[in-house]
Amino acid sequence: MLTGPTAPQIVAIVHDRIRAMLADRFGEDRSFSGSDRLNETLGLTSLDLAELVVTLEDRFGVDPFAKLVPITDVQTVDDLARAYQIGLSSQASPPLAPDAGFEAARQRGARRRIRPP
């Protein structure tokens, strides 16, 4: 069975991408922690954040901001890593099997609506 990255691996990947972006943007290696704010502390612009999200979406194959996590909730490095943890965990969850009783009732209702005149 294939499994996705673990929570620590997701954090490491997010940190690596941010570190690379900071080095590219500011020309130096800058240290940061998970509690650092992406905008205020690290100085990333909204365009930087959009680029970062696209890069991480390509890396992980999931967009947690489509339905699971409001992008406005992401303020810190840890928030960003957590969003991808949520996105990947929901992607790994199998779809729920329909309830047999509900499915039988649905089919009976469909047959009633299709009766010929």
Q: Helix proportion of residues, in percent?
A: 55-70%
Overall domain count: 1
SSE sequence, one letter per element: HHHH
**Residue windows where pLDDT falls under 50 for at least 5 positions:** none
Number of helices: 4
Write out the CATH superfamily name.
ACP-like
Q: Report the count of strand segments.
A: 0
CATH architecture: Orthogonal Bundle
- Work out the strand percent: under 5%
The value of Rg in angstroms is: 21 Å
What does this structure look like?
The chain is mainly α. It is 56% helix and 0% strand. The protein has one domain (7-113): ACP-like (Non-ribosomal Peptide Synthetase Peptidyl Carrier Protein, Chain A). It contains 4 helices and no strands. Helix 1 crosses helix 2 (46-60). The chain is elongated. The model has no long low-confidence stretch (mean pLDDT 84).
Please give a quick description of this structure.
By secondary structure, the chain is mainly α.
Question: How are the elements arranged and paired?
Answer:
Elements (H helix, E strand, L loop, with lengths): L6 H20 L19 H15 L16 H16 L7 H14 L4
Task: Please tag this protein with its features.
single chain; 117 residues; mainly alpha; Non-ribosomal Peptide Synthetase Peptidyl Carrier Protein, Chain A; 4 helices; elongated
